[in-house]
Amino acid sequence: MADELKPAYLLAGTDRPKIDRALERLRRRFSPDAVELLSAGEVPGEDVVATCNALGLFADEGRLIVVDGVEEWKAADAKAVATYLKAPAPATTLALVGGELKKDAPLAKAVAATGEVLLWEVPKRGLQRWVLEQFQVQGAKAEPEACRALVELVGEDLYELAAEIDKLATWAGGERVTVDDVDQLVTARAEATNFALTDAWGARNVAGVLHATESMLERSGDPRSKTIPRLLGILTSHVSRIQECQTLESRGVSAKDAAVRLKRNPYYVGKLYAQARNFNPDELRDVTVRLSLLDHAIKGGSRLAPELELERALVEITKPRG
Questions:
Q1: Which residues are CB-contacts of 125 (< 8 A; sequence separation ≥ 6)?
Q2: For residue 61, pLDDT beyond 90
Q3: Could you give the number of structural domains in the chain?
Q4: Are 38 and 66 in contact (CB under 8 A)?
Q5: Domain hosting residue 133, numbered range
Protein backbone atom coordinates (compact mmCIF):
# COMPACT_ATOMS: atom_id res chain seq x y z
CA MET A 1 0.00 0.00 0.00
CA ALA A 2 1.19 3.53 -0.72
CA ASP A 3 2.29 5.82 2.17
CA GLU A 4 -0.56 8.24 1.53
CA LEU A 5 -3.85 6.69 2.53
CA LYS A 6 -6.53 6.36 -0.11
CA PRO A 7 -10.24 6.80 0.55
CA ALA A 8 -10.96 3.10 -0.02
CA TYR A 9 -9.28 -0.27 -0.28
CA LEU A 10 -10.68 -3.57 -1.51
CA LEU A 11 -8.85 -6.57 -0.05
CA ALA A 12 -10.28 -9.78 -1.45
CA GLY A 13 -9.51 -13.29 -2.66
CA THR A 14 -8.87 -16.76 -1.33
CA ASP A 15 -5.54 -15.93 0.32
CA ARG A 16 -7.06 -14.89 3.66
CA PRO A 17 -3.79 -14.93 5.64
CA LYS A 18 -2.28 -12.43 3.18
CA ILE A 19 -5.43 -10.31 3.33
CA ASP A 20 -5.31 -10.37 7.13
CA ARG A 21 -1.69 -9.18 7.12
CA ALA A 22 -2.51 -6.32 4.76
CA LEU A 23 -5.51 -5.33 6.85
CA GLU A 24 -3.42 -5.41 10.04
CA ARG A 25 -0.84 -3.09 8.45
CA LEU A 26 -3.65 -0.72 7.54
CA ARG A 27 -5.19 -0.87 11.03
CA ARG A 28 -1.87 -0.01 12.66
CA ARG A 29 -2.03 3.39 10.99
CA PHE A 30 -5.04 4.33 13.08
CA SER A 31 -5.77 4.62 16.76
CA PRO A 32 -7.51 1.41 17.93
CA ASP A 33 -10.50 3.48 19.01
CA ALA A 34 -10.73 5.00 15.53
CA VAL A 35 -11.37 1.63 13.85
CA GLU A 36 -14.96 0.50 13.33
CA LEU A 37 -15.74 -3.08 12.26
CA LEU A 38 -18.86 -3.93 10.26
CA SER A 39 -20.25 -7.03 8.55
CA ALA A 40 -21.57 -6.85 5.00
CA GLY A 41 -24.07 -9.57 5.86
CA GLU A 42 -25.68 -7.27 8.42
CA VAL A 43 -25.02 -3.79 7.04
CA PRO A 44 -25.97 -2.83 3.45
CA GLY A 45 -23.89 -0.50 1.32
CA GLU A 46 -26.08 2.54 1.98
CA ASP A 47 -25.67 2.17 5.74
CA VAL A 48 -21.90 1.81 5.37
CA VAL A 49 -21.85 5.03 3.37
CA ALA A 50 -23.87 6.73 6.11
CA THR A 51 -21.33 5.53 8.67
CA CYS A 52 -18.49 6.95 6.59
CA ASN A 53 -20.23 10.30 6.28
CA ALA A 54 -21.14 10.53 9.97
CA LEU A 55 -18.90 12.81 12.02
CA GLY A 56 -17.06 10.90 14.73
CA LEU A 57 -14.68 11.68 17.58
CA PHE A 58 -11.71 10.90 15.35
CA ALA A 59 -12.82 12.84 12.27
CA ASP A 60 -9.75 15.10 12.43
CA GLU A 61 -7.21 12.39 13.30
CA GLY A 62 -8.50 9.88 10.77
CA ARG A 63 -10.70 6.84 11.11
CA LEU A 64 -10.98 3.44 9.47
CA ILE A 65 -14.24 1.68 8.57
CA VAL A 66 -13.70 -2.03 7.94
CA VAL A 67 -16.46 -4.04 6.25
CA ASP A 68 -15.96 -7.81 6.07
CA GLY A 69 -17.76 -10.27 3.79
CA VAL A 70 -18.39 -7.83 0.93
CA GLU A 71 -18.60 -10.67 -1.60
CA GLU A 72 -22.20 -11.01 -0.35
CA TRP A 73 -23.13 -7.50 -1.49
CA LYS A 74 -25.36 -6.94 -4.50
CA ALA A 75 -25.22 -4.39 -7.31
CA ALA A 76 -27.12 -1.81 -5.25
CA ASP A 77 -24.51 -1.96 -2.51
CA ALA A 78 -21.68 -1.49 -5.01
CA LYS A 79 -23.55 1.43 -6.55
CA ALA A 80 -23.88 3.12 -3.15
CA VAL A 81 -20.14 2.77 -2.58
CA ALA A 82 -19.34 4.08 -6.07
CA THR A 83 -21.50 7.15 -5.51
CA TYR A 84 -19.88 7.79 -2.12
CA LEU A 85 -16.35 7.54 -3.51
CA LYS A 86 -17.05 10.38 -5.94
CA ALA A 87 -16.94 12.64 -2.87
CA PRO A 88 -15.55 10.59 0.05
CA ALA A 89 -15.55 11.88 3.61
CA PRO A 90 -12.24 13.53 4.52
CA ALA A 91 -9.93 11.70 6.96
CA THR A 92 -12.03 8.51 6.54
CA THR A 93 -10.68 5.30 5.01
CA LEU A 94 -13.03 2.54 3.92
CA ALA A 95 -11.58 -1.00 3.86
CA LEU A 96 -13.74 -3.58 2.11
CA VAL A 97 -12.73 -7.17 2.82
CA GLY A 98 -14.12 -10.20 1.01
CA GLY A 99 -13.65 -13.61 -0.54
CA GLU A 100 -13.44 -14.36 -4.24
CA LEU A 101 -14.18 -11.34 -6.44
CA LYS A 102 -13.36 -10.73 -10.09
CA LYS A 103 -11.46 -7.66 -11.23
CA ASP A 104 -14.46 -6.56 -13.27
CA ALA A 105 -16.95 -6.97 -10.41
CA PRO A 106 -19.03 -3.81 -9.79
CA LEU A 107 -17.48 -3.34 -6.34
CA ALA A 108 -13.94 -3.69 -7.70
CA LYS A 109 -14.68 -1.11 -10.40
CA ALA A 110 -16.17 1.24 -7.82
CA VAL A 111 -13.08 1.13 -5.61
CA ALA A 112 -10.54 1.18 -8.46
CA ALA A 113 -11.68 4.64 -9.57
CA THR A 114 -10.28 6.43 -6.50
CA GLY A 115 -8.95 3.70 -4.22
CA GLU A 116 -6.85 0.55 -4.45
CA VAL A 117 -7.97 -2.97 -5.35
CA LEU A 118 -5.85 -5.85 -4.02
CA LEU A 119 -6.98 -9.33 -5.07
CA TRP A 120 -4.96 -12.30 -3.84
CA GLU A 121 -5.87 -15.79 -5.00
CA VAL A 122 -4.41 -19.18 -4.14
CA PRO A 123 -4.78 -21.53 -7.12
CA LYS A 124 -5.86 -25.00 -6.02
CA ARG A 125 -3.03 -26.48 -8.05
CA GLY A 126 -0.56 -23.92 -6.68
CA LEU A 127 -0.89 -24.59 -2.96
CA GLN A 128 2.62 -26.02 -2.66
CA ARG A 129 4.07 -22.86 -4.22
CA TRP A 130 1.98 -20.75 -1.81
CA VAL A 131 3.47 -22.63 1.14
CA LEU A 132 6.99 -21.96 -0.18
CA GLU A 133 6.17 -18.24 -0.50
CA GLN A 134 4.88 -18.13 3.10
CA PHE A 135 8.17 -19.58 4.33
CA GLN A 136 9.95 -16.81 2.41
CA VAL A 137 7.69 -14.19 4.04
CA GLN A 138 8.86 -15.58 7.40
CA GLY A 139 12.47 -15.23 6.26
CA ALA A 140 12.84 -19.01 6.16
CA LYS A 141 13.83 -21.57 3.54
CA ALA A 142 12.11 -24.88 2.86
CA GLU A 143 12.66 -27.82 0.55
CA PRO A 144 9.99 -28.23 -2.15
CA GLU A 145 9.28 -31.72 -0.84
CA ALA A 146 8.82 -30.30 2.65
CA CYS A 147 6.16 -27.95 1.27
CA ARG A 148 4.41 -30.84 -0.45
CA ALA A 149 4.51 -32.92 2.73
CA LEU A 150 3.06 -30.05 4.76
CA VAL A 151 0.08 -29.73 2.41
CA GLU A 152 -0.42 -33.48 2.51
CA LEU A 153 -0.49 -33.53 6.33
CA VAL A 154 -2.46 -30.35 7.02
CA GLY A 155 -4.78 -30.09 4.04
CA GLU A 156 -6.00 -26.96 2.27
CA ASP A 157 -6.95 -24.77 5.25
CA LEU A 158 -4.72 -21.71 4.77
CA TYR A 159 -4.91 -20.59 8.39
CA GLU A 160 -3.76 -23.98 9.65
CA LEU A 161 -1.00 -24.06 7.04
CA ALA A 162 0.12 -20.55 8.03
CA ALA A 163 0.25 -21.55 11.71
CA GLU A 164 2.38 -24.60 10.93
CA ILE A 165 4.67 -22.56 8.67
CA ASP A 166 5.20 -20.04 11.46
CA LYS A 167 6.02 -22.86 13.90
CA LEU A 168 8.44 -24.58 11.51
CA ALA A 169 10.17 -21.32 10.55
CA THR A 170 10.71 -20.42 14.21
CA TRP A 171 12.00 -23.89 15.05
CA ALA A 172 14.38 -23.98 12.07
CA GLY A 173 16.13 -20.81 13.24
CA GLY A 174 17.45 -19.91 9.81
CA GLU A 175 18.16 -23.48 8.69
CA ARG A 176 16.36 -25.02 5.73
CA VAL A 177 13.12 -26.83 6.65
CA THR A 178 13.27 -30.45 5.46
CA VAL A 179 10.77 -33.26 4.94
CA ASP A 180 12.00 -34.90 8.14
CA ASP A 181 11.30 -31.67 10.05
CA VAL A 182 7.73 -31.65 8.77
CA ASP A 183 7.19 -35.32 9.60
CA GLN A 184 8.51 -34.85 13.14
CA LEU A 185 6.81 -31.57 14.04
CA VAL A 186 3.48 -31.53 12.17
CA THR A 187 0.50 -33.58 13.26
CA ALA A 188 -1.61 -34.95 10.42
CA ARG A 189 -5.21 -33.73 10.32
CA ALA A 190 -7.80 -36.46 9.82
CA GLU A 191 -9.41 -34.69 6.87
CA ALA A 192 -6.08 -34.19 5.12
CA THR A 193 -5.12 -37.86 5.41
CA ASN A 194 -8.63 -38.89 4.33
CA PHE A 195 -8.26 -36.85 1.14
CA ALA A 196 -4.80 -38.29 0.51
CA LEU A 197 -6.38 -41.74 0.56
CA THR A 198 -9.49 -41.00 -1.51
CA ASP A 199 -7.59 -38.87 -4.06
CA ALA A 200 -5.07 -41.65 -4.61
CA TRP A 201 -7.83 -44.23 -4.99
CA GLY A 202 -9.75 -41.99 -7.40
CA ALA A 203 -6.60 -41.64 -9.52
CA ARG A 204 -6.12 -45.44 -9.44
CA ASN A 205 -2.71 -44.89 -7.86
CA VAL A 206 -1.93 -48.11 -5.99
CA ALA A 207 1.32 -46.84 -4.46
CA GLY A 208 -0.40 -43.65 -3.30
CA VAL A 209 -3.25 -45.59 -1.71
CA LEU A 210 -0.90 -47.89 0.18
CA HIS A 211 1.24 -44.96 1.35
CA ALA A 212 -1.80 -42.98 2.56
CA THR A 213 -3.17 -46.05 4.31
CA GLU A 214 0.09 -46.72 6.13
CA SER A 215 0.26 -43.07 7.22
CA MET A 216 -3.26 -43.26 8.63
CA LEU A 217 -2.49 -46.47 10.50
CA GLU A 218 0.70 -45.03 11.97
CA ARG A 219 -0.65 -41.62 12.93
CA SER A 220 -4.13 -42.42 14.20
CA GLY A 221 -3.09 -43.11 17.78
CA ASP A 222 -5.75 -45.84 17.97
CA PRO A 223 -5.17 -49.59 17.74
CA ARG A 224 -5.41 -50.96 14.21
CA SER A 225 -8.52 -52.88 15.20
CA LYS A 226 -10.27 -49.49 15.33
CA THR A 227 -8.41 -47.68 12.55
CA ILE A 228 -8.93 -50.29 9.82
CA PRO A 229 -12.77 -50.29 10.10
CA ARG A 230 -12.72 -46.49 10.13
CA LEU A 231 -10.56 -46.46 7.01
CA LEU A 232 -12.95 -48.94 5.38
CA GLY A 233 -15.87 -46.65 6.23
CA ILE A 234 -14.11 -43.67 4.61
CA LEU A 235 -13.59 -45.60 1.38
CA THR A 236 -17.11 -47.04 1.34
CA SER A 237 -18.67 -43.59 1.77
CA HIS A 238 -16.41 -42.13 -0.88
CA VAL A 239 -17.26 -44.82 -3.42
CA SER A 240 -20.95 -44.22 -2.75
CA ARG A 241 -20.52 -40.51 -3.50
CA ILE A 242 -18.58 -41.35 -6.66
CA GLN A 243 -21.44 -43.58 -7.82
CA GLU A 244 -23.94 -40.82 -7.10
CA CYS A 245 -21.94 -38.30 -9.12
CA GLN A 246 -21.49 -40.78 -11.96
CA THR A 247 -25.27 -41.24 -12.12
CA LEU A 248 -25.88 -37.49 -12.07
CA GLU A 249 -23.40 -36.89 -14.88
CA SER A 250 -24.99 -39.63 -16.98
CA ARG A 251 -28.26 -37.70 -16.65
CA GLY A 252 -26.64 -34.51 -17.92
CA VAL A 253 -26.24 -32.81 -14.52
CA SER A 254 -23.09 -30.65 -14.44
CA ALA A 255 -20.67 -30.72 -11.51
CA LYS A 256 -21.71 -27.16 -10.60
CA ASP A 257 -25.40 -28.07 -10.48
CA ALA A 258 -24.59 -31.29 -8.62
CA ALA A 259 -22.79 -29.29 -5.93
CA VAL A 260 -25.98 -27.31 -5.32
CA ARG A 261 -28.10 -30.44 -5.29
CA LEU A 262 -25.73 -32.31 -2.97
CA LYS A 263 -25.11 -29.21 -0.82
CA ARG A 264 -21.35 -29.68 -1.07
CA ASN A 265 -18.37 -27.53 -2.02
CA PRO A 266 -18.18 -27.10 -5.85
CA TYR A 267 -14.44 -27.82 -5.90
CA TYR A 268 -14.97 -31.06 -3.98
CA VAL A 269 -17.80 -32.17 -6.27
CA GLY A 270 -15.63 -31.35 -9.29
CA LYS A 271 -13.03 -33.74 -7.91
CA LEU A 272 -15.69 -36.43 -7.45
CA TYR A 273 -16.80 -36.01 -11.06
CA ALA A 274 -13.21 -36.31 -12.28
CA GLN A 275 -12.62 -39.45 -10.23
CA ALA A 276 -15.92 -41.00 -11.39
CA ARG A 277 -14.65 -40.86 -14.97
CA ASN A 278 -11.77 -43.19 -14.00
CA PHE A 279 -14.21 -46.04 -13.31
CA ASN A 280 -17.12 -47.49 -15.24
CA PRO A 281 -20.35 -48.46 -13.42
CA ASP A 282 -19.46 -52.16 -13.36
CA GLU A 283 -16.11 -51.43 -11.78
CA LEU A 284 -17.71 -49.33 -9.05
CA ARG A 285 -20.17 -52.12 -8.30
CA ASP A 286 -17.24 -54.56 -8.05
CA VAL A 287 -15.46 -52.15 -5.69
CA THR A 288 -18.54 -51.99 -3.46
CA VAL A 289 -18.75 -55.79 -3.33
CA ARG A 290 -15.03 -56.10 -2.58
CA LEU A 291 -15.28 -53.61 0.30
CA SER A 292 -18.21 -55.64 1.70
CA LEU A 293 -16.07 -58.77 1.57
CA LEU A 294 -13.27 -56.89 3.33
CA ASP A 295 -15.69 -55.81 6.04
CA HIS A 296 -16.66 -59.45 6.59
CA ALA A 297 -13.01 -60.55 6.60
CA ILE A 298 -11.81 -58.07 9.25
CA LYS A 299 -14.77 -58.93 11.50
CA GLY A 300 -13.65 -62.53 11.84
CA GLY A 301 -14.47 -63.99 8.45
CA SER A 302 -10.82 -64.60 7.57
CA ARG A 303 -7.86 -66.24 9.28
CA LEU A 304 -5.49 -63.72 7.67
CA ALA A 305 -4.35 -60.62 9.56
CA PRO A 306 -6.67 -57.63 9.01
CA GLU A 307 -3.70 -55.59 7.71
CA LEU A 308 -3.04 -58.18 5.00
CA GLU A 309 -6.72 -58.40 4.05
CA LEU A 310 -6.82 -54.61 3.82
CA GLU A 311 -3.74 -54.41 1.60
CA ARG A 312 -5.02 -57.11 -0.75
CA ALA A 313 -8.39 -55.39 -1.11
CA LEU A 314 -6.84 -51.97 -1.71
CA VAL A 315 -4.65 -53.27 -4.52
CA GLU A 316 -7.63 -55.01 -6.15
CA ILE A 317 -9.99 -52.02 -6.06
CA THR A 318 -7.35 -49.48 -7.14
CA LYS A 319 -5.27 -51.11 -9.84
CA PRO A 320 -5.65 -49.66 -13.36
CA ARG A 321 -7.70 -51.49 -15.95
CA GLY A 322 -5.92 -54.41 -17.54
A1: none
A2: no
A3: 3
A4: yes
A5: 124-185
